[in-house]
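Weekend entry, working from home. Most of the wet-lab plans are on hold until the incubator is repaired, so I used the time to fold the two sequences that have been sitting in the queue since the last round of cloning. Logging both here for the record. First:
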Amino acid sequence: MHSLLIRYGNFLFKYRNTLFPVVLLILFVLFRPVPYPDAATDWRMDLAGILITLAGQGLRAAVIGLAYIKRGGVNKKIHADSLVTTGLFAHCRNPLYTGNFLILTGLLIIFNNPWAYLAGGGFFIFSYAAIVHAEETFLLQKFGQEYERYCRDVNRWTFTTRGLNETLKSMEFNWVRVLYKDYTTMLTWIVTVILSLNLEHVYFYGLQQSYRYSLHSVAVLAGVILLAGVVRGLKKARAW
């Protein structure tokens, strides 16, 4: 069981950037949004979902901006030249994945389907647990007692707030690195939010009444994709 979980975690680590968005898309295709009791409640829940998603992205930005870590590994395999314990990694062992959970939670709240909660929540919780298990096995084998001490001092998923203010004050935030390293994540969840809200509007009000709303959604979507293209171009040109 241990070796199977590691193999599954390594597989997901390699293909997660493609597989996870596809799984999310499948959930949204298989299930349809469930209306809340009234428009006001629906608006509040959509807003709550967006705020939770923004919190997840904010956490990811803080992690990447404060301390660099090779999130994609090397050749899509788990890799570490050194054990990163600075920045927010001094307060949580997996702050990026915690941010991902917040983003996924927000997206599911916006979509609002109990079956999507169950299937999506189960898949992503188990998948991230497998990835973390594979990563921890690798890090333990490579760094030994140093990693064991780190695990004793820092929680796997939850944050230790002790010394957080000192951490934030002592490090310089690199916003360019955030854009370069995380623009695809931003693009993915923003596109998902726009499409989810548009799909919800069509389900609730019909295609004809959603025509203008859809046009606005397409305009915003085009702007977001254009901005992502600009960031990609600057990254390729090694600007900044």
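Second, folded right after the first finished:
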Amino acid sequence: MMQDLILQLAPPPSDVALRMDCPYCNHKNTLSITNTNGTIFYHCFSASCNLKGRVTDRKELKFTKHELPPRKTIPLDLRSFVPLGRNQKALDMVIKRNSYEAYQHARADIRYDLRQDRVVFMVTKDKKFVDAVGRKLDDHDKRPKWFRYARSKHPFVCKTKTKSDTAFLVEDCFSACAVSQVHHGVALMGTNLPNEYLTTLNSYSKIVVALDRDASKKAIELTKQLRVSVPTTLVFLEKDIKNMNLTEIQELI
């Protein structure tokens, strides 16, 4: 239940508001939680989210603003995931964004989420599912375009079919699938680079940072950060990788 999750997020002491990412809509820093005389009020300020309510905790709350317990990982629920071919619109999106070849040759496990109406890219670690990343099918839907199902912080990686030991750090899962025709694809899926991503990227002999042109500043920062441990180069894209043909991808470096 959502109320149980709110309690697990460790509400602050009385009259002190806590702000954090919303676990319902996944927007950044939009959830406010306050504890007033033992009653916990929560409200998401995102216009597309209707999460709000209150819950009474009978236990004395002793956490301070700087002593919050770690957030628990949400278990990955696979019950609403079905084969990609069950939804034609989902299949068409994968084909249009140059990802069908990776799906067809089992380099990417891509499914359809019946409940959220999303194309879903499965994230694995040690050959086990630890997370999933979903892209909504309807752009008119007010929910976030991308949704992380389990907050594992492990990257979506699409292994290449070639002998390349170069990894491309790209913006999203579609681009990771597209570039895997030539090199390994690792989807950033955000603006920060978690330590779990560094562990994965450090296993390659070379990294190419290839983000969209509007993220050039971020791309430069990531290149400097990664170059400390792995030979890293930067390419400025004139076109999204997921919209490139094979020849264009081969000419990237």
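Plan for Monday: verify the second prediction. Residues 16 and 244 are 50 Å apart (CA to CA).
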